[in-house]
Design brief:
Helix content is 6%, strand content 70%. It has one helix at 4-16, and strands at residues 23-38, 43-53, 60-72, 77-91, 97-115, 118-132, 136-151, 161-175, 185-199, 202-214, 219-232.
């Protein structure tokens, strides 16, 4: 029962995302590659690459590169310190492409556990963000994440086979919110997916994500098709 201290807040998160203002609906495609490289029993290297399309899959609009050094406190818990770079290319009404970018330093804590055969992960992340458009501005953001991988037809140890993936992540602006959207609530992402575990070293997932994001002048409701590949060596 102790694990439900994480589950209950996550259920509440879904209702937070229902704040209503001017709504814009978009459809995007994401590709996400996540890799963990074991160095020894205590240290891992983490690396993520993510690309995102513009509305209606028109062109590549975002590239996210993220890396971190992770320290394993025990078999279930770890902490990490990392850096991320995010670049955005937007085609305005004029022929020229508008480019903006962001540099981040982040700290995170991960707790992995099981509920029956389902593999659960709870993650908190604190990000220091330097955003550049016409000038550089600084803000700080917190993130709360919970995911589950539920085996469907798999061996007892869940070393191979198909699974259902469910996850939710809440983003909160905790410092200099005026530099982002002038709101504590930043965004919420809910994902459901079907995945296949090839081995303990590789998972692949195809899923649907509902991404609700609040910005200065409007709120965005994005329907995202995501292909994700996770490796661990």
């Amino acid at each position: 029962m102790k694990h439900f201290q994480f589950v209950l807040p996550l259920l509440v998160i879904v209702f937070i995302s229902r704040n209503v203002q001017a709504q814009i609906t978009e459809t995007q495609g994401w590709f996400f590659l996540s890799h963990t490289q074991t160095l020894n029993k205590k240290f891992d290297l983490l690396a993520d690459v993510q690309t995102r399309s513009a509305n209606q899959f028109n062109y590549l609009t975002t590239l996210l590169l993220r890396g971190a050094l992770s320290y394993n406190l025990n078999t279930k818990q770890s902490v990490a310190l990392g850096y991320a770079y995010k670049g955005d290319w937007e085609k305005d009404d004029v022929p020229a492409t508008v480019y903006s970018h962001e540099n981040r330093i982040y700290e995170q804590y991960i707790y992995e556990f099981k509920i029956r055969r389902a593999e659960m992960m709870f993650r908190t992340r604190l990000e220091q963000r330097w955003l550049y458009e016409s000038a550089t501005s600084f803000s700080q953001r917190g993130r709360l994440f919970l995911s589950a991988q539920i085996p469907l037809i798999a061996d007892t140890a869940f070393k191979k086979g198909p699974y259902l993936g469910v996850q939710n992540e809440l983003f909160l602006n905790i410092k200099n919110k005026v530099n982002v959207n002038n709101s504590v609530f930043d965004q919420n992402r809910v994902l459901t997916s079907l995945g296949y575990r090839f081995s303990k070293k590789m998972d692949a997932e195809l899923g649907y994500q509902f991404w609700y994001q609040k910005e200065m002048d409007a709120s965005y409701r994005r329907n995202v098709i995501q292909l994700m590949l996770t490796t661990h060596f």
